[in-house]
Amino acid sequence: MKLCFCLITLSLICLASADSSQETGFLEITGNPENVEDFVFKGKEFKLKGKRLQITSGNQASNSQFPYVAELAINTITGGYKCTASLIGASWLLTARHCIVGMPQITSILASFGSADNQAQRTQIYVNSATWMNAADGINHPDIALFHLSQPAPTTATIKPVRLPKLAQENFAYDNYDFTAIGWGQISLGVFSRYLQYTNFRTLAPTSCFLGQYYMCSQPPTGISQLLGGDSGGPGVIVEADGIETQIGVNVAYVTAGTSIWQKSTRVSNFLQFIKTQTGISY
C-alpha cells in the first residue's frame, strides 16, 4: 500500500514560492503604528470543523522557565497570524522563514516577552526588519529567519537570550537527542492557548527518518505530542552538561505518513555562520 506523505507548516497561512535570486532576503517592516499601544492584531480565530486533535503530553510553562521565547503577532493586508520566536541577542529573534516569506504583504509585527500568560502584562517590541536565507536551486530554501527588534529587549528574570551551539559544533547532527520544543501555538485545532506550552521530543537518525539536509526529524519518546499552528519558529532546546539550555532546532512543520507523525525542525547548527554574519552573535 502506498503511503501518502503530508507536510504541514505550523503557521496559519499556506506558503507561496519565494524569490531565490539572492543568497539572503530582506524585508523592512513599515506599517508598525507609532506606539505599541496602538497595535491591533488583525488575525481571526482559526476554526476547523470536525474532530479536533488535542495535544496530549504538552505542559504549561511557568513565567521564568523559557525567558527567551517570544510570541509574534503578524498583521498582513488581508488579516493576521501568529508565530513563535526565540530571543538570541538583545535585538535579535530567531524564527522560521515561512513566518515571513510567501505571505501576503506584511504590515506590522509585534513581539511579546516576559510572561507565559498572554493575558498578563508583557514587554512588547516591534520587529522592524527580517532577514532570511534563499537556496541556490530556488526550491529547497532553509526554513530559518532572523527578525530585528526596533529596540533592545531588557534583561530581566523573565526575559533573557537563549544560547546557540558553539561555532565548533557547526553542522553537528544532534541525532538521538532529547529536546524540548516550545511554542505559542494551538492546543487543539482552532484553539490557541492562553499559556506558553512545551513538550518533549527525541531526534531520530537519518536511517530512521530523513526530511532534508537542513532538518532534524523527531518524535515524542512516549505518548502522543504534536505541534500545531502558531508554533512555527519556536525553539527546540537541550540542556547541556553545564546545565545551560542551548537551542538546537526551530519548529517548522510536522510530517505524516499513514498513522505516523514526525516533527520537522530546522537544525540551527547548520546556520551558525549565517547568524554570526547577520547579527554578530556566536559562541
What string, H for helix and E for strand, traces the elements in order?
A: EEEEEEEEEEEEEEEEEH
Number of helices: 1
Beta-strand level of the residues, as a percent range? Answer: 35-45%
User: How many DSSP E strands?
Assistant: 17
Mean pLDDT: 85
Strand order of the largest sheet: 10-13-14-17-16-15
Name of the CATH architecture of the largest domain: Beta Barrel
**Helices and strands: which structural class?**
mainly beta
The CATH class assignment of the largest domain is: Mainly Beta
- Principal-axes shape call: globular
CATH superfamily of the largest domain: Trypsin-like serine proteases
Rg over alpha carbons: 17 Å
Helix content: under 10%
Q: Residue ranges: pLDDT <50 for 5 or more in a row?
A: 1-6, 12-22, 46-56
Distance between the termini: 48 Å
Please give the largest β-sheet. 6 strands, antiparallel, barrel
Q: Give the number of domains.
A: 2
Which oligomeric state applies?
single chain
Keywords: Disulfide bond, Hydrolase, Protease, Serine protease, Signal
Signal peptide: 1-18
InterPro entries: Peptidase_S1 (IPR050430), Peptidase_S1_PA (IPR009003), Peptidase_S1_PA_chymotrypsin (IPR043504), Peptidase_S1A (IPR001314), Trypsin_dom (IPR001254)
GO molecular function, one term: serine-type endopeptidase activity
